[in-house]
Amino acid sequence: xxxDGRGVVELGGSLRLEDVVAVAxxxxxEFAPGVEEVIAAxxxxxxxxxxxxxxxxxxxxxxGSLADVxxxxxxxxxxxxxxxxxxxxxxxxxLSRAEVRAMLALRAHVLAxxxxxxxxxxxxxxxxxxxxxVLPVVPEQGSLGASGDLAPLxxxxxxxxxxxxxxxxxxxEPVPAGAALELAGxxxxxxxxxxxxxxxxxxQGMTAIGVLASSRARRLVKTADVAASLTxxxxxxxxxxxxxxxxxxxxxxxxxxxxRNLVRLLSGSEILASHRDGxxxxxxxxxxxxxxxxxxxxRDVLANTERTLEIELASVSDNPIVLTGDGEILSxxxxxxxxxxxxxxxxxxxxVGLASISERRLYRLLDPKTSNGLPPFLVGEAGVNSxxxxxxxxxxxxxxxxxxxxHPAAVDSITSSAGQEDHVSMxxxxxRHARACVTNAEAVVALxxxxxxxxxxxxxxxxxxxGGRAALRAMRKRVAHLAQDRELKPDVDAAIELVSSGExxxxxxxEIGALE
Length: 516
Description:
By secondary structure, the protein is mainly α. The chain contains 20 helices and nine strands.
């Protein structure tokens, strides 16, 4: 269920993408009413299987290629703890605080769906970690995306049991998990049969990263429309190509939404009005004229990615799965991350297109041959001052890097576990690449906005429309007009923060209403 009036997100029911984002950003999470009874019912099925001596994968057998090794009940706890310890071998940079919180919420949520066979106190532990902001250190590299995100989820589980390292409020460095749990008044978990396996099977790593990346991309596509509108004004472009009569003849939803945004953003522009009925070039360049088509295509891919992620939020990706109604425990392949992998690959590629056209508009702003009379690099005394010249270099570099990152991860597979796991999704890689492409695109759009704000001011005394003026005011609160060369890195960082935080978009929407 979505966040209620208290700002609490309920897990174990219907979960939305924005709910996951809310918890990632610090909202409280709790189980929906009746969830603990559902969890307990699934646990009874596991206990019945144990008492009957039934052969159940991961409960009375080994794992992966060792699934045919029978184990006695007295090995159950050691088996589960050993599984978590041995699988916690991810490497590389840590996932961010928001990503780890999202993983904890998603792991609690899937356990709360009542098909994993864990005890209530095991599922509750993830809520407790969120409540105390005790966040396991989870390196981001090492998942093949089937059986789910084994290595990253094992690090998450390790912290829940009191092993490994965690981050806690007020401490700059990670601390031992056991000590952090003790300070929070929590006892280490002792895992029983099936529980270690239940904590590491699933797609919650790739899904967490994908959800947060898609949320940022949703904000970015609107911000890109704002950037394009400012550039169109500054470059003396026209809004005629965005006429609903024309755009409506190609009814892709994203294209139409972007065109409507641009029309609203450009409405009331003195700059556009100054040349609307007089001389104008026959056609604007593609990066100007086709902005709705390119931005819209990114929107449509993003919508498909979000639909896949929403389905994943409602999914049980454990193995084996406990069917409470039938009293059965069945092995399956729900942990395979291929749907999420393809969704994140698509998002990465679509966001590169958004960054690419933004960089082309930035280029046109800086070249007097294409800017319709603006000074070279948007600063006086060309040759003495370089202005925004190298901002375009940086944007071009980011776009080029993103083209490599957008190579689809889902097309690859490497056999593991002695051949038992012979096709994997690489979904975590796809999600990480999507996140990186979004980060790069935020920077490129910010660089366009930085230059476009300067260029619009150079058209004074004519002014931009209300939307453009709001964007300009937001920029000038953080970045001064560039009269001559100065250290630009603080300006660039401030512009990126305005984009990534949503501050600039919020300022525009406060002025003209919500963009689509």
